[in-house]
């Protein structure tokens, strides 16, 4: 490829690099060819509450393919027609929703989490995680998988007790509660990052190791807690 290049610039190719570069180029091309266009949203205020006009039922000729208003005159007319008009609540729909505890960490998700919450670099997270692994406090660090082996589910009671012994809060946990994280069909070469049963070296952790261990342990403990339940109104 280098020889065929008229500029004789060094060109590196490979089964990982080439398709990755193609993805980057495709996204770059989309960005360069993007043409912005204005659209309008009708919002009315009443006693501190914002009411957004739904575009359902509006004239299609003033809407784009994403059902957004693109005609300014039409938008202004709608605004005038709906401002300071008497209105009433026709219906209230309340749906009970729930969010399950998050999945265990993979290396990339842990690095992203520590960067967002504490400003850690990816390398700092990896180095600290490697140290915890060498002290047998956490499992293998360089994993791209968030799932856990089903056979390790039976170790939960022991691990939670060991975590409690080193100061991790395990209140509200139930070892009979089975999170979707335990799934052998989703495993790759290495499973998600989790604390081990061995806490004998917990007393040797420095401040960074303690912080990272706490986050990994909390993520594991939460697998045995109830999902977050809320009403969507």
Mean pLDDT: 93
Number of strands: 4
Question: How much of the residues is beta strand, in percent?
Answer: 5-15%
Shape: flat
Quickly count the helices: 6
Strand order of the biggest β-sheet: 1-2
Query: Which spans of ≥5 residues are poorly predicted at pLDDT below 50?
Result: none
Based on CA atoms alone, the radius of gyration comes out at: 27 Å
Helix % is 25-40%
Describe the biggest sheet? 2 strands, antiparallel
SSE sequence, one letter per element:
HEEHEHHHHE
Helical/strand content category: mainly alpha
Describe the structure.
- A hairpin with a 2-residue loop joins strand 1 and strand 2.
- Helix 3 crosses helix 4 and helix 4 packs across helix 6.
- The radius of gyration is 27 Å and the shape is flat.
- The chain has helices spanning 17-33, 72-82, 107-118, 122-134, 156-165, 207-222; strands at 43-46, 49-52, 95-99, 228-232.
- It has 233 residues and is mainly alpha-helical.
- The chain starts with 16 loop residues before the first helix and ends with a strand.
Helix-strand blueprint:
Layout: H1 17-33, E1 43-46, E2 49-52, H2 72-82, E3 95-99, H3 107-118, H4 122-134, H5 156-165, H6 207-222, E4 228-232
Antiparallel strand pairs: 1-2, 3-4
Helix pairs in contact: 3-4, 4-6
Defining key terms:
233 residues; mainly alpha; two-stranded antiparallel ribbon; flat
Write a compact overview of the structure shown.
Helix content is 34%, strand content 8%. It is mainly alpha-helical and 233 residues long.
